[in-house]
Amino acid sequence: MYRYIWLIPLLPLAGAALNGLLGRRWRFSERTIGSVAVGSVILALLLSFAAVASYGYGSAAVWPRAYVTSEDGWSSFTWIPGETSDITRGERDDHRPARFEVAWSYQLDALSAIFVLLITGVGLCIFIFAIGYMHGDAGFDLFFAYLGLFMFSMLVLVMSSNFVMMFVGWEGVGLCSYLLIGYYYDRHEAGDAARKAFLTNRLADGALMLGIFGIIAAFGTAEYYEVMRQASASAVEALGTWGVMSWIALGLFVGACGKSAQIPLFVWLPDAMAGPTPVSALIHAATMVTAGLYLLARANVIFLHSHTMMLVVAAIGAATALFAATIAITQTDIKKVLAYSTVSQLGLMFLACGVGAFAVAIFHVMTHAFFKALLFLGAGSVIHGMRHEQDLGRMGGLRKYMPYTHLSFLIGWLAICGVIPFGGFWEKAVIFWRAASTSGFPVGWLRWL
Fold first, then answer.
1. Of 155, 247, 333, 414, which has the most beta carbons under 10 Å away?
2. What is the pTM for the complete model shown?
3. What is the dihedral of CA 357, 229, 168, 247, to 10 degrees?
4. pLDDT tens across 305-316, in order?
């Protein structure tokens, strides 16, 4: 089944196209629109499970080698046909120019498998929740078209086999976030929040483009496998030096800071609460804000070859975690508390990457996706039950009226606090230990503190 991974992003796209292009023209009912949207995600989730299972455990399992659809030919194509070009770094064939081209192909490996299952799994819960939350909304069909397009873009981002194709999904996610955050376009604050998110991310994306250009110039290719293979043979750049690897890593890191809301580019994320609550859950849980973490993990070889950038990543992550958590203490809007909490947790993930614990960072991404989606959907349930009231000062004593929401919120709260035996305890304990014991740069105990 892993040979059919190219269908996974196409299914949400088909559902989005059906609802967006025909929903209003053919006057689809809310039941029909919801069935199309949720059905497409269910099929994508089932196909994701089957693909990952056959990739890792099937009779023709290819684990641990990455599977790329271009191996079969029929499920990928040459997207950007290239001409001969010279490369400034890496291997050459008798010093002759290399041919550069970009394929539209999907890659399945351990990293992309985790994100595909997270996006489709958590996304399905959010889609189902949105059917009830958006009931009666005039733009019901358009809303689910945006959600489907968002999921398609996110799946392209994490399943692509090269940096250029990844950038297409990256920009698609940025566009969809603008549309979803500004969904209530008749509200002044929603329009301002959407523009702030769009402009902040475009600023960061400019640096990401420079990083990708640097990769192409340095290695003569944009394919993940080939770039990492050549990068692993490069010399490690010591702390305080700025070589090619450090400059490339800097461009990638600034782009990641924009999507994952790190200092100083975190200002858009709390304002993103102006969108409907399902959008807040989708953006803050397993999807858009984790794209930066995915990029860091995908390019981990490049970062590990620059001690300077590893220190920068760790320092920015630690500062963001502390700064955002401090801001959250003063908030009275239930969704903004969770928004700053997300920024703080992302800071911990960046700290983990900065001390070389990439696997632990992805572990935190996975558990955070579930307990943060649980908290946001619980907040949505409270807001819905309070007739769209979001001020915490006007809430209290809701347990007897909303017992199931109380229980689910309590579980998510214990998990994010890192209480045994929830997953939050294990991941944060390892992050702190790695921060204190790192040998990549001095005074690691400061990051632990």
1. 155
2. 0.87
3. 70
4. 998 999 899 889
